[in-house]
Amino acid sequence: MKLLVINGPNLNFLGIREKEVYGNQDYQFLLSLISEKAKKENITIEPFQSNCEGQIIDRIQEAYFDGTQGIIINPGAFTHYSYAIRDALASMDMPKIEVHISNVHKREEFRNVSVTAPVCTGQVVGLGLHGYILAVDAILNMIQ
């Protein structure tokens, strides 16, 4: 089984930016957490991070052809306005879970709206980096 984890803008700055919101663990820690989960479940989880909308769309579209069976995505700020990422996700007929490290519903008003969530199977918010692991578990349950 192959899953894809997509992280959008500024996620590569975990542990650097807004530690009071996103915590002290860096992006490398998140990658190791995901890698450990993949080993434990005996699956492939490919991480991908980009600060560029077009690269994220390209990677979503590649998933259609490369055997990916589920997508976990933290679109970052694109969550709130990227109809192009939303449309790319909508074209994928597989489980898709949107993840947010912080509880976006308790933050600035503009963060309360996700244009990508309606085309995802589910959403995990506010549970820190552990939300990625919960999203993997959710997809595994959906597929098996």
Task: Tell me what the structure shows.
The chain is of the alpha/beta class. The protein has 5 helices and 5 strands. The mean pLDDT is 94.
Report the span from N to C terminus.
Answer: 10 Å
What's the main sheet like? 5 strands, parallel
Task: Catalogue the unreliable spans.
Answer: none
State the total count of DSSP E strands: 5
Helix content estimate: 25-40%
* Structural class by secondary-structure content: alpha/beta
Alpha-carbon Rg, integer: 14 Å
Question: What shape does the CA trace take?
Answer: globular
Average predicted confidence as pLDDT: 94
Tally of alpha and pi helices? 5
Order of helices and strands: EHHEHEHEEH
The percent range for strand residues is 15-25%
Q: How are the strands of the largest sheet arranged?
A: 2-1-3-4-5
